[in-house]
Design brief:
single chain, about 70 residues, alpha+beta, Double Stranded RNA Binding Domain, two-stranded antiparallel sheet, 4 strands, about 20% helix, about 10% strand, globular, zinc-finger, repeat, metal-binding, Znf_C2H2_sf
Length: about 70
């Protein structure tokens, strides 16, 4: 990503992510006040398993839902 330090395996993943840096966030959650630039990010937010974070950073000990966010 040219805006943040995230890296991606495919160009399409990077293109999807790059939308998160725009101010336009048309995908709104019907249950809370959050909105998202991408429909897939909204789907992840609405996932029935939001606490599931299988990817763990060995440096800072934070956990992530997606490998690309590690």
């Amino acid at each position: 990503c040219k805006v943040c330090p995230l890296t991606f395996f495919t160009k399409s993943e990077m293109q999807i992510h790059s939308k998160s840096h725009t101010e336009a966030k048309p995908h709104k959650c019907p249950h809370c006040s959050k909105s998202f630039a991408n429909a897939s990010y909204l789907a992840q937010h609405r996932s029935p398993l939001p606490a599931l974070k299988p990817y763990h950073c060995s440096y800072c000990e934070k956990s992530f839902r997606q490998l690309s966010h590690l």
